[in-house]
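Same chain as my last thread, 347 residues:
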Amino acid sequence: MKVIIDKDIKYFEDIIIALEGMDNINFVYLHQDEINNKTIEDAEVLFVRSGTKVDKSLLKNTQIKIVGSATAGHDHIDSNFLIKKNIEWFHAPGCNALSVINYVLSSISYLKKAGLFSKNDNVGIVGCGNIGFGLKKALDKLSIRNFSYDPYLDLDFLSDLNQIKNTSLLSLHVPYTKTGKFPTHNMINSKFIKDIENKILINTSRGGIVSEQEIIKNNKLRYISDVWENEPAPKKDIINYSLISTPHIAGHSYNGKINGTIFLIKELQRYIKLSTEIQKNNRDTISNTFLNTKISKTSKLEDYLEAYNIKDESDNFKFSYKHSSDNEFSNTFNKLRKSHLYRKDIY
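reply #2:
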């Protein structure tokens, strides 16, 4: 059996060679730009990241039977086409939730240090899935007052959107959708932005959720963003305008990356029907060898900025972009993503 793996799925090869029951599998590691219809045509399994669009053009006339993505989101996967062709697919929801939470808390820690957020301010959380709910728990632990909104959930602690708009800082944790009862495409539009003037907005979801030109046009909202319209070539004006700008790396901690990889490997073992005993041995190997570093605990907001200095990351990103020509934007963005500072999560 042939398995194609995006070469940038972190630690995949390191883990695989340490496991039992994988000897008869031909693992082929390709760079993202090498994954195409021709290179995967005789493979049975395809493992990708968010940069690979998995659709008819990629999979037509191939032998692919299962697709996995080492990502929390799945908007790069044409699920309707895969279902129609009886191709099994999955992603790794929640794999980098703690990483994104750390990113947001590092941002808030920086804001507090810069005198832009105080202990009397409050936070509005839009979206209460793995990340949003985890952020709520972390803020509760830090005694930072917060309110959550999610139109798809019926939970006692949820607030309405107007109450969220009245908070000092809003953090977005929603999927990118164009359909459904509450589509998020361009959700943060001119009217929404007008309602939260002179406040702070953090976006770690997707670029298309926020109207960047309306942010700039309004010119009163402090914007922190890790995601952008037209990635990997976002526009310089929004990068420069934003208080904190980073190249889509909020979930790129050691813990977030390895969690996604382990999820893929777990599903692969299920697919090839490894025995229960071998799967148990492999779980022990992964736990003892790759998850043996404990995540640090903290009860202080300042520790998040100390563990991951988001201002330094932003300064580096803005400097690199400033000194890149228009035709170099994509390369600069992707290079910075791949060379992102190694960091471990705390909670």
